[in-house]
Write a structure and sequence with these properties.
By secondary structure, the chain is of the alpha+beta class. The chain contains 10 helices and 12 strands. The chain has a 5-stranded antiparallel beta sheet. Strands 9-10-11-12 form a 4-stranded antiparallel beta sheet, sandwiched between helices. Strands 1-3-2 form a 3-stranded parallel beta sheet, covered by helices on one side. A hairpin with a 6-residue loop joins strand 11 and strand 12. Helix 4 packs antiparallel against helix 7.
C-alpha cells in the first residue's frame, strides 16, 4: 500500500475530520495487511498518537479495550477473560503481535480471525466515534461498513471462557476455531470454517458437540475439506464443554 500523504492526528475529532474529508482516506491500525496490498491511496490516517485508543480499562463488570491496543498487550494481560489471551498466542510471532491491533483485526472482519471468534463468544460490544454502539455480531453481519472510527471494545467479565483452534502449523491461520464463554448465558462461537465467525443458536436443547454443530456450514478449500473441519470442531467443542463442567 502506497500513501500520497500520512497524517497522525492527536485527537478523535481531528482523526474523524480526516476520515470523512478524504474519499480515499484509509485508517491505519497496525498496518500489517495494508503493507501487503498493491494499491495506492491519497491519505493514510495513523491513529497511534491518540492515547485513549491505546488503553485497557477494567471496570466492575467488564473491560474496555482501546482499538489501538496490540494483540501482544492482550496476550500479556492476565486480567482479561482467558479466551482472549488464548486466541492471540498463536497469531504469527511476537514481533507480529506487537504490530497487529485489536481494532484493525475487528474492522477487517477476516474469516480466518481467531480473536474475533473469542470476542464474539464473550458478547463484545463496539463503540464508534460517530455511529451508535453495536454488538460485534451485528457488525459482522453488516453488508457495508460506513466511514467511522472504531474507538473501543467492551468485553463483559466471564465466569468461564476458553478458546481452541486447529492449525497445520503453530503460526498458521486456523483451519477452524471455537470459543465458549459463560457470563449471563453460555455462548459458543465458531470461526475459520472457512468463513466469518458465527454464534451457535438454540443451544439449550442440544447435548453433544455433534448436535450443537449440526446446523453450522463447514466449507472446503485447498487446506481441508468441510467434513474434516466439522470433525475437528466436534472434537474441540467436546473438550471445551468437558472443561467448562470442571470449572463449575
Amino acid at each position: 500500500m502506497n500513501f500520497k500523504k500520512i497524517v497522525r492526528p492527536l485527537s478523535l475529532d481531528e482523526a474523524y475530520h480526516d476520515v470523512i474529508g478524504q474519499e480515499k482516506g484509509i485508517v491505519i491500525g497496525g498496518g500489517v495487511f495494508l503493507r501487503l496490498q498493491k494499491r495506492s491511496a491519497d491519505l493514510g490516517i495513523d491513529l497511534s498518537c491518540i492515547e485513549s485508543l491505546r488503553m485497557i480499562q477494567e471496570r466492575e463488570n467488564d473491560f474496555v479495550i482501546g482499538s489501538m491496543v496490540t494483540l501482544r498487550e492482550l496476550e500479556k494481560n492476565i486480567q482479561l477473560p482467558r479466551s482472549v489471551c488464548q486466541s492471540v498466542r498463536q497469531i504469527g510471532g511476537v514481533s507480529l503481535r506487537n504490530l497487529v491491533t485489536i481494532g484493525g483485526s475487528i474492522w477487517g472482519r477476516y474469516p480466518f480471525s481467531d480473536i474475533i471468534t473469542a470476542l464474539l463468544s464473550l458478547n463484545s460490544k463496539l463503540q464508534f466515534f460517530n455511529s451508535e454502539d453495536m454488538a460485534l455480531s451485528d457488525f459482522l453481519a453488516k453488508d457495508k461498513l460506513e466511514k467511522d472510527i472504531l474507538i473501543s471494545i467492551t468485553i463483559p467479565k466471564a465466569e468461564y471462557s476458553a478458546f481452541r483452534a486447529y492449525k497445520l502449523n503453530y503460526t498458521d491461520f486456523s483451519m477452524v476455531n471455537l470459543s465458549v464463554s459463560s457470563t449471563d448465558e453460555i455462548r459458543i462461537a465458531v470461526g475459520a470454517r472457512p468463513g466469518r465467525a458465527l454464534l451457535l443458536q438454540d443451544i439449550s436443547n442440544a447435548h453433544t458437540a455433534e448436535e450443537l454443530l449440526a446446523d453450522v456450514e463447514f466449507g472446503t478449500d485447498l487446506r481441508g475439506s468441510g467434513i474434516y473441519r466439522r470433525k475437528m470442531a466436534e472434537v474441540m467443542l467436546s473438550d471445551l464443554l468437558e472443561e467448562g463442567l470442571l470449572w463449575k
